Amino acid sequence: MDRTDRASRVIAAPPATVYGALLDRDSIEAWLPPDGMRGRVERWDPRPGGGFRMALTYLDASDSPGKTSDATDVVDVGFADLVPPERVVQRAVFEADDPSYAGTMTMTWHLAANGDGTEVTVTATDVPPGIDQAAHEAGIASSLANLASYVEGAD
After folding, report:
1. Domains (ranges, CATH) in the chain?
2. Cα R_g (the chain), whole angstroms
């Protein structure tokens, strides 16, 4: 698994505000699920070596079957590295019987000051082959748009 997916967006909020939204349980639950999904954090430990477990449910599973069940993706995410307010590195493992979703995907959230805002670049490495690249990059972009709406409304 050597595929890399990425997306980026400039968010009209300072890096510290964006970083805070990456490490707050209620924030993650609000903005991380991409369009067409809702999320529920089942476990939360925001420290290096800690992590979270999230259940993502498709609002309409008829054309988007889940990895864990017909309508759900469950992912265990570990925090591998936290560098405030510049970087969050996560290791994500999907709960799935299908071996095409097996393995550990690394998600690096890089935050860089950009004028009055923050350029957020998400790089996913070792993406399991069962995850469609175009759909994954669209999902990351959707989460970034949600993050922007979430933190820009908070200022």
Report:
1. 4-32+79-154 (3.30.530.20)
2. 15
122, β-bridge pairs? 7, 109
Nearest to residue 140, comparing CAs of 19, 1, 5? 5
| pTM score, whole prediction | 0.92
pLDDT at 62: 75
The CA angle 117-41-154, to the nearest 5 degrees, is: 30
Residue 153, helix vs strand vs coil: helix
Decide: helix, strand or coil at residue 152: helix
C-alpha neighbours within 13 Å on the C-beta side of residue 13 = 23
Cβ pair 22, 109 in contact under 8 A: yes
Instruction: For residue 99, give the 3-state DSSP assignment.
Output: helix
DSSP 8-state assignment for residue 125: E
> 119, 52 in Cβ contact below 8 A?
no
